[in-house]
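User: Predict the complex.
Assistant: Input components as received:
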Amino acid sequence: MTNATPPKGSERNIRSLSSTHIDGAPMAYIIALAAVVTALSFIPFSFILGSGGSFPLSQGVLGLVGWVLGPVAGAVSSGIGSLLGVFLAPHTAGPLPLMRVVGSVYASFAAGAMVLGQKRRYWWIPVAVYAMLSFAYFVGRAILLNGVGVGIAFAATFVDWSAIVLFILPTRKLITGWLRSSKLPQVMLGLALGTWMIYGITHVCQSAVIYHLQNYPEEVWATLIPIIPFENLVRAAVGVVIGSGVITGLRAVGLIKPEHAVF
Amino acid sequence: MTTYKFQTVERDSVFTRLDFRSKILIMIVVTLLAFLWEDPIYEAVLAVLVLGACLAAGVKRGYITLLLAGMSPFYLFMLLTHAFFNVAQAERLLAVSNLHPIFTLPADLWLIGGLEATWEGFLYGANVMFKTMSLTLVIPLAIFTTDVDEMISSMVHARVPYKLAFIFSSTFRFSPLLWSEFNKIVAAQRLRGMALESMGLMKRVRVYARVVVPLILSALVRSQQLEVVLQSKAFNGDADRTYFHEVQMEIVDYFLISILFLFSIAAIYLRVQFGWGKFSVWF
Amino acid sequence: MVSKKIAVLKEVSYQYPRSEGYALKDINLSIERGEFLAVIGATGAGKTTLCLSLNGVVPQFFGGRFFGSIEIGGEDTIDVPTSQLAVQVGEVFEDPETQIVAASVENEIAFILENLKTPRDEIVARIPEILDAVRLKGLEKKHPHELSLGQKQRLAIAAALAARPKLLVLDEPTSQLDPYGVRETFQLLKDFQAAYNLTVVMTGHAAEEIAEYADRVALLSEGQLKAVGSPQEIYTSFSLLKDNALRPPQVADTFQRIRQRSVEVIQTPVCLQDGIEAIRDLQTRVNICSPKISSQGEVLQTETILETENLFFNYPDGTIALKDVNLTVKKGEYIALMGENGAGKSTLAKHFLNLLQPSRGDVRFAGKPTREFQVSQLASRIGYVAQNPDQQIFTTSVEEEVSFALRNLGYSSTEISVRIEESLTEMGLLQVRDVHPLSLPKGDRARVVIAAILAMHPEVVIFDEPTTGQDDLGAQAILKVSLRLHQQGKTIIVITHHLHLMPDYARRAVVMGRGRILLDTDIRTAYHQVDLLKKTYLHPPQAVLLAQEIASQTPIPKLLTPAEVAACFKPRVRGRA
């Protein structure tokens, strides 16, 4: 590259004549991450019976997809990626494949809705309202209709209500700030809590529907008390490992950031 | 050499000839019915019908086996937990105060000694099992009987934004590439002394998470190239273009759609008005 | 009146956003209708940017600053959107994977036509026509994943041509292909050029083919157009080529060396056929001698380190990948393992590492069957440098990358830091130890991977296609590392189809084709088995063919390089005509 002399030609006014974006994210990015989600659907992770069947490794990146692409493009990418994943890798799709897809859309949207600035600063509210309604239906149905003990119901939904609390309180903004930090330990902390939170609220939304169908009895609730937090801890750990690698990598490569990226 | 593609059926059947929109409606109606009913017999009939349709359409048996085998631990879990524990709910739904026992575990067993399995609980579990089976099997029925490009055209005709349809087909194109790349990265890590063979679950989780990092990064870097390729191929995300694959609704589609509509309305009416399909047992 | 020029570049300069220098600087160039213009230059010279500017992707997609103008068939690339310029300009890129966007062959062709709003009947008519022309008929419904690399690249060309552009721009379309695929692609382009008066602009490093097929060659250097001329003019400007880390065709190189020996050469040929004729001419005028060459063919008397015996391997889908492979590798050898794409070279290497297990037969390392080892155990003793560095980089700094394997293998922290130091020094990476590997240029990323593997102190190092996608300088740099390792006593296996690079390094050549070992001998004997090489779609380097031409008249040993061939010609005795 030569710098010495100014160019001889006259400078031209450049207009962007391209229109291949969705909500500020290039189509190709959306496709690439959707394909990642699909490919990772092939890898089963472990069994969680409470929310239905095994979960695939793709769940470890749904939050990240939202943080990288923003809420709308992230939701599109995750949704289409898991939709294909459900067809191609039925062995990890769980008992309610479509629920898996809806959950992915919700998770990435919720992650992308974590914003700091003035723009879109109310987007988190519908996400939170939906999570709270789901929680009310889920736990309410268990206690009032199916006679699950109040203590057990709340113990078994620790992941759910802790995530809702984190999401509603200013902790959401704190976590977002950490994700943007240039210090790796802060990014990792943000990823850990952010992943816990995003999957927690996703879990409650899915559980409300699944519980409506399955009505598992109190004894199952009891067994879930240790399992669900453990599973979510694993997800958070996966979120930290993948997220910190990808975010530092993207900063190193200098890829053009989508308009509504959170990281 | 990991090659995979859509398990598209090779057989020509009424399902392959149906418009994709009709098949989407089948999916919606089956989902609706599965949610609507709680009677194990209704659910069993629905599941058998969907399974039969899959076989008739030529969905590969290997795929169905993989699917059912993958789900079987879940099915077993559902049957057992409901048989042993689902007492209160079964009693409430059936408005009875004592259930029919199947057997009782010996009292001296640790923790689970003395537990009683009931027929009613078991059947409720069966209802859940068949429900999920229908929901799982209806997907290959609709998807594997349709050519991907037909899907795109159908989606566009069904007013799905072209950009979404395009992302769908491109994801389909690129996911095998990423899957084979995933395996290459795993191999590369083993070649740097990663002893996958002697690793516990938690360690493996960490390894796989590590593999995903280069996977995502290279996918994103390449996606910038992909964007250039798309633009060079005159792509502008505009739905105003021509379509190589044409789709058209045939009489059989209209017929099927009307039947499905009528049936759904009838099923809802019967459930609400007369309780058809509510949880019941025949003894 | 239709202008004779399809593209006119006037004072074109371009700067990428967030970049200091100019990727293109003051370029003036006219491209004639129907010509075949090759663009050459080292990595980073601006070839790709030039290609992308011809259809407006630069600057319309990338942004940045643009100076001057480019007119394509009268349309200005700044004012007309890329999607509209696509009617006139087709583009083909290096990576066959990312440029095929559809899920089947016919849809790939249809895609661009659909975007250009071509009526459906017309699309239906054009697909068989174009597939026939690129010999992909019968594969209409195939998923791109099921095609070979060469087929994928032909499909990409077909898709670009389907819209009947007047100008076809190809950016390094052959760098991933084997020699046969390269020639095939060039021939295909030449055919289209002749049949449709198509204008072809192509970048690449395939000097021999460019010399033969291109009408004009443009040389780029640091964003500037250094020279434009016929292949004859450019490929005989030796100092210009050397300054730009470019390589002349071997024919030209050979005759340049002959000339340096004060032998009169009327015109330095750049194409093989001209070279052979020039040799015939020289033979009538000049004395031929038998040059001294390094001794060859000696068998090392060391112990066997790797061995396969009646090795067969079938993939689960039934594809036979290896057939009755018997190979013995002695400690301290340097072997070139050659063959077309898909010949089974990498499959064989994976058996050494127990990544694949034989369907039949045995593979042994140091006398013990490889299946008795864990992959990680073998990997610490057999270093395997795979093709794409980016699939082998996992961590966030160069230093961590090097320590990755050492930590896996459970070394103490003092041992780890010693080895990191040593390995980084060896590969010249000390200055960048804290840098994220992905922020380094491609050649350096490859070095990071090699450093990470060397840190394990392997006894054998296998390089799998290390020179693919590298320019001549980059390729030589990696091979020099292999030579250094060989001198340290390590056993080296280089998998490659770049035959011209190997004579200075390898002693023994193993040629594979369709899963079999076709030839296993010293490199001189191997390179002179021209017909056998053709069976596995390899072409011997031009120097070998020139040597054979000489040998048909005068008995000389089996020569491999331009220098050796040139040495056949005795300097003229003073006073002779």
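Chain A touches chain C at residues 1-3, 7-18, 244-245, 248-249, 251-254 (CB under 8 Å).
Let me know if you want any component modeled separately.
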